[in-house]
């Protein structure tokens, strides 16, 4: 039976929403999804279309969504539509909507920078070498089973989150003399969330195309997409 996937992309161009989602369209089609692409989250307000959608793959950083769109997305997920995404395309979307933030369960707060002497005024200022650590739950979960802790050099997301998420992997921000915090901060890096009859999947790694093509990141995202879908 063919399932339907709705890819919604847009927002800040720095996350390459078109090129990034294009990386996963062949996987979706090969996995048996009938795929459509929209460039505007207002599609979420179409109740009939959302009811017929088994998976939303979202890549919309920042930007805005109407109250009707957010309500439509929440209702669709609660009724069984899956929601999946990576990095700012899901964890830094629609900052002005508390209802959206509650649905996803985690919100980007910052990505700490390098030492001030190494800052040059471009995106690489925030590219740190860090470890993604798979949790005990993650070692048993179908999304991350068999994946060992791995290192990345990219933005390390600091995430504000609640206790309704199931954390499959974490990353820890160390104390540095040039930052104002005084003890290490552990943030979720990969999580899932049950919402009504639906499922939500989030991977915070995914800032750039090379990160999305890292074998560990890509495997986690592909498995997460399948896990979230109705």
Attribute tags:
230 residues; alpha/beta; two-stranded antiparallel ribbon; 9 helices
Characterise the protein shown here.
This protein is an alpha/beta fold. It has helices at residues 17-22, 25-30, 47-51, 67-78, 88-91, 98-104, 136-140, 209-212, 215-228, and strands spanning 3-11, 33-38, 55-61, 82-86, 106-110, 127-134, 150-155, 158-161, 166-173, 185-195, 198-203. Strands 2-1-3-4-11-10-9-6-7 form a nine-stranded mixed beta sheet. A two-stranded antiparallel ribbon has the order 5-8. It starts with a strand and ends with a helix.
Short account of what is shown:
This is ThuA domain-containing protein. Residues 5-228 form the ThuA-like domain. The chain is of the alpha/beta class and 230 residues long.
Q: What multimeric state do the chains show?
A: single chain
Low-pLDDT runs: none
What is the strand tally?
Answer: 11
Strands ordered across the widest β-sheet: 2-1-3-4-11-10-9-6-7
Report the mean per-residue pLDDT as an integer. 98
Beta-strand percentage?
25-35%
Element order: H for helix, E for strand = EHHEHEHEHHEEHEEEEEHH
What's the end-to-end separation, in Å? 12 Å
How much helicity do the residues have?
Answer: 25-40%
Q: How is this fold's topology laid out?
A:
Elements: E1 3-11, H1 17-22, H2 25-30, E2 33-38, H3 47-51, E3 55-61, H4 67-78, E4 82-86, H5 88-91, H6 98-104, E5 106-110, E6 127-134, H7 136-140, E7 150-155, E8 158-161, E9 166-173, E10 185-195, E11 198-203, H8 209-212, H9 215-228
Parallel strand pairs: 1-2, 1-3, 3-4, 4-11
Antiparallel strand pairs: 5-8, 6-7, 6-9, 9-10, 10-11
């Amino acid at each position: 039976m063919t399932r339907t996937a709705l890819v919604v992309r847009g927002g800040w161009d720095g996350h390459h929403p078109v090129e990034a989602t294009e990386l996963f369209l062949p996987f979706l089609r090969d996995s048996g999804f009938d795929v459509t692409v929209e460039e505007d989250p207002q599609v979420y307000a179409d109740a009939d279309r959302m009811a017929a959608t088994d998976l939303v793959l979202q890549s919309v950083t920042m930007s805005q969504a109407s109250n009707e769109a957010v309500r439509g997305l929440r209702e669709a997920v609660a009724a069984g539509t899956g929601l999946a995404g990576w990095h700012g395309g899901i964890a830094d979307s629609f900052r002005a909507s508390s209802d959206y933030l509650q649905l996803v369960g985690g919100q980007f707060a910052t990505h700490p920078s390098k030492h001030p002497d190494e800052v040059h005024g471009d995106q690489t200022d925030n590219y740190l070498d860090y470890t993604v650590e798979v949790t005990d739950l993650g070692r048993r979960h179908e999304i991350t089973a068999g994946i060992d802790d791995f290192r990345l050099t990219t933005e390390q997301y600091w995430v504000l989150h609640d206790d309704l998420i199931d954390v499959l992997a974490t990353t820890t921000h160390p104390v540095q003399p040039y930052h104002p915090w005084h003890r290490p901060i552990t943030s979720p890096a990969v999580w899932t969330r049950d919402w009504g009859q639906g499922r939500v999947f989030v991977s915070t790694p995914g800032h750039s195309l090379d990160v999305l093509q890292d074998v560990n990141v890509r495997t986690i995202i592909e498995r997460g997409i399948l896990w979230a879908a109705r």
